[in-house]
Amino acid sequence: xxxxRPDYDPQGLALGDWTLFPSVxxxxxxxxxxxxxxxxxxxxxxFETTPAFRLQRKTQDGIFDVFxxxxxxxxxxxxxxxxxxxxxxxxxxxxxxxxxxxxxxxYYGEYHEDFASVNVIGNPSAERDxxxxxxxxxETAASYGSGDWLISSGTSLDRFDWQPTALLxxxxxxxxDRNTTYLDPYGRVAYQVxxxxxxxxxxxxxxxxxxxxHDRFGFDRDSSGVELDGGMTALIGKTLNLDxxxxxxxxxxxxxxxxPDHRLQDVSELDYGLTADWYAxxxxxxxxSAARSLSDLILPDxxxxxxxxxxxxxxxxxxxxxxxxxxxxxTYSRLIGTQRVDRYPAAGVTLRYLINRYASAELAxxxxxxxxxxxxxxxxxQIVTVGLNLHI
Length: 392
Description:
By secondary structure, the protein is mostly beta strands. The chain has a domain at 1-174 and 354-367 and 378-392.
């Protein structure tokens, strides 16, 4: 998927020193369980249209982009779910000197929470619409390389502002207790021990600040944590690219001035990650990834969702103009502080036909499910998609 395809890749429109890459994607989708419900399955057709642009300028020392998109969802049977997501942002990379490089990126947009979210409580088909939120993201990075050493650092800042959830009885449920600011600075030191072999150490600080002193259930969810990892990257032969790390992570909750019955459980776990890309042939690549992550929750007694995911995927060029992408994935999710465990199997396949430099078509199938010790939270869902992408 990363190789250049001059006959099919968009060339853009020259605007002085800048190049504009406009595109629009339109899909028709059949969803056999719109509300991700176990007992009350409802199917629907929905149409998704996504106009987007990227305005890019390349210089001798760097590259700069301004980008944006709008995502229109229109349902046939449930028009109350119609919505528009959007994003606007910019990013840039610059080589300050032979040894020093820096990058800055940011975006802001409005999005919606899928009904598959573990934070969705109750039966959405009978009670509620999508929950909307605004998200702002800013990240910086800088690196210094000399000889076999590479030192890098950076930080990311995320802001979530949640909108009220509209219920079908006309009422609204406030989500102000979910408004959060995330701060994640990090540092990384790497040393090339041999050509194509690198070892590294990495440290990350994680701070999560909620606007309100406690959530709707009386819990103080402010927390901070650290990740300490050591790993290696390697290009084995000419066909296997590997990145693996092992370490330690923890997340501690402030629990300030909270009743003892409303204290959230801290997390201290093994940290790990693996990505492997096998370039088996010029027309076939296989990918394996495994990772652990901690996700915020707004559920009684649960502090975090401890998610361990493994994914296997592949890209296959059946012809020079036909690409097949497929994946299978599995996530084991433990809700810290409770006895609940969720399991998420998923699989999908996409057939992409490159028509010419201006258009491509796709046919896709996606299966997702949740198997849970909390039986009412279980669901399975299938989506079939037919789409057309136009670009210049």
